[in-house]
Predict the structure.
Amino acid sequence: MFRKTLLAAATLSLLAGSALAQDVKVLRIGLDGSENEADQIRNTQCVADGLKAATGVSEVKLFPSPNYNGVIQGLLGGTIDIASMGAASYAAIALKDDKAVDPILTYTGSDGSSGYYSIMVARKDSGIKTLADLKGKKIGFADPDSTSGYLVPNVALPKEIGMPVKQYFSETGFGGGHENLVLAVLDKKFDAGTTFGSGVGKWEEGYSGGNLHQMVAKGNLDMDDIVQVWKSPLIPNGPLMVSNKVPADMKAKVKAFFMELPKKNLACFQSFTQGKNKDYIEVNPAFYQTIVDARKSVIGG
């Protein structure tokens, strides 16, 4: 009788888990505005189609936001289920509610590394080549919730220039995402600006991955028009995050889909991760603790 009871309980538990997965009819992917909306949707559509087939949901919806904070608030509020963002965006969520999401995966670059760099660029014809050349000039950041476009420069630069960023530069501002920031530098709205790249590969290709690489691939940027003024220490690649409002069995299906994506559809994986990247690896909150601590010290949450 006892064994029958245990078997019945186990069966009910499995059925309950199955019912939870079946209750999820729609999965919602947030897009953070780091690239223009049309390109982000196009680069993510293959993920949406594959995820729908892999999980059995009736629909996977894409929700583009004009900025990072829109997706952050969606993950905190439970209106977004999945997002791939920078580590600072995860830190913003974790500092508000460390139970809201789980960072489950990150990608590895063409060289197998799980990191990238904040890269400061200026127009080549500006004559700016070093940080010393930028003293008293105007600098642009990508977005206040960007890891490479704001947080890391504001942690690392003061150590090199010997003073707070706002004292060294005459003016600071935001470009409204990485792509727009680089375009603003080209349009002379900023003397220099911070974006991101893999730091490996060919300069003329915008390295092997990141915003510069994407812009070159789309024909929006000729690397001969810019110079690299500064490169940060290595930053951990941003996480693929899943809301903890998603049932555990559905979350497992989502994770399995993304783990298999580089093997099953490399072109889709590289489009989604913005570069010639290799695969996904598992991560957890401890992987991003240094970024959480940095955000807390610079922004305060």
